[in-house]
């Protein structure tokens, strides 16, 4: 049997003979060896949530599609604050919906999971991040702070009515209330008093200051505020970011875009940041 070792004397002899003729023969012997195993990057899963009155096919659709194209596992659910659902479920049910979406992403192989949201979805993402262990939260132009002076003024009578009906045992009866959005003003929504109060109680889940300060300190946040955001959100930007618990990977990102264009304008930074966070932490154990 001819082996690489037995060939070496013949190679040396050939080199000596050719050297006398002025020719030089270079022989490269490649001896096969074991190939190191390649470890594929741990899959990243992201739950993407739309804004108030929106839908999965609206302003967050491009972000969700771009992440999927990059190999992310993505869930893009329709949340209770969509235009079609009109607060048909309370905050606890919305939380359970995101938990279920995360469980499906983990079942598909996601080792690192993030929750992202736009506008009201961004505020809900911050609320969710204060109650769950995740790799990171992405708050894109978060808005809808029910504790703000504008919300208290515009919706105070509706909140009072919802309290009254709930206390009277009529919390499950469909009722017309007011909703508010800075770019749209006040408008009517029909839902149960119990659900309405769950979302619009100034001291409840959608109180932005409480949500920010209650963030899990172990969970980093990509806090996105576009340069063309609505004035009240721009005014609150620095205070809200400063109120987040200190974390070395928490970052303020300010893309040059409007409020509605912020998800699309942030695709590159979201991909970069989530990859950085995922590479700095071990994959999470399944709950």
Report what the structure shows.
The protein is of the alpha/beta class. It folds into two domains: 44-146 and 205-279, Rossmann fold (3-Layer(aba) Sandwich), CATH 3.40.50; 149-195, no CATH class. Helices cover 40% and strands 15% of the residues. It has ten helices and eight strands. It has helices spanning 4-19, 61-69, 91-107, 120-129, 149-167, 193-200, 208-213, 231-243, 262-265, 267-279, and strands spanning 44-49, 73-75, 112-118, 136-140, 175-181, 185-191, 221-224, 251-253. A six-stranded parallel sheet has the order 2-1-3-4-7-8, sandwiched between helices. Helix 5 runs antiparallel to helix 6. The chain is globular. The N and C termini lie far apart (57 Å).
Q: How do the helices and strands line up, and which of them pair or pack?
A:
Elements: H1 4-19, E1 44-49, H2 61-69, E2 73-75, H3 91-107, E3 112-118, H4 120-129, E4 136-140, H5 149-167, E5 175-181, E6 185-191, H6 193-200, H7 208-213, E7 221-224, H8 231-243, E8 251-253, H9 262-265, H10 267-279
Parallel strand pairs: 1-2, 1-3, 3-4, 4-7, 7-8
Antiparallel strand pairs: 5-6
Helix pairs in contact: 5-6
